[in-house]
Amino acid sequence: MTMKQILTLLTAGLLLFLVLVATPSFAQDTKKDKAAKALTDTMRTQLSLDDTQYSKVYDINADFMDKLAGVKGDGDSKMAKFKKLKAIDEDRDKALKTVLSAEQFKSFQEFKKQNRQEMKARFKARSK
Q1: Using CA atoms, how far apart are residues 35 and 13, in angstroms rounded to an integer?
Q2: 57 within 8 A of 99, measured Cβ to Cβ
Q3: d(CA 60, CA 98)
Q4: Using CA atoms, how far apart are residues 52 and 70, in angstroms rounded to an integer?
Q5: Read out DSSP for 38-73?
Q6: Cystine design at 100: which of 57, 70, 87, 104 (Cβ 3.0–4.6 Å)?
Q7: CA-CA distance, 18 to 12, in Å (whole number)?
């Protein structure tokens, strides 16, 4: 093998390694971004968000999704995870309260309550 061929193989190997290392983290970020966008799009429809509110709510939801993913990955007990999730949800509510009008925030709370009831019903149906 010539020096040029060895250098080409090393370069190709390095590029392949970089692609393999970077792809999983990029895919996770894309999933979180898609989830934050979907949630914010739903909120735009439900709460009649204007463009400024949409942008701020998207940032809040992206941070929320990032924190949720962090809790999902740690090895804490179910109760510890529940407490962390509750704290994350409360932080998001505080942040949203500064962006939404009082009426929008009330509608958001009602929407959230309805979603929780539906999730509980699905969980009960699944565990039967």
Answers
A1: 34
A2: yes
A3: 11
A4: 28
A5: HHHHHHHHHHT--HHHHHHHHHHHHHHHHHHHHHHH
A6: 104
A7: 10
Question: Tokens for 124?
Answer: 């009960």
CA–CA distance, 60 with 8 (Å, rounded to integer): 45
* Contacts by residues 66-69 (CB-CB < 8 Å, ≥ 24 positions apart): 66/32, 67/91, 69/28, 69/32
- Closest listed residue to residue 69, CA positions, set 52, 85, 90: 85
- Residue 100 carries which DSSP code? S
pLDDT string in tens for the chain (128-residue length):
666 666 565 555 455 454 544 444 444 567 888 989 999 999 999 999 999 999 999 999 999 988 888 887 777 888 888 888 899 999 999 999 999 999 999 999 998 888 888 888 887 887 76
Which of 60, 12, 15 shows the shortest CA–CA distance to 39?
A: 60
Amino acid in position 18: L
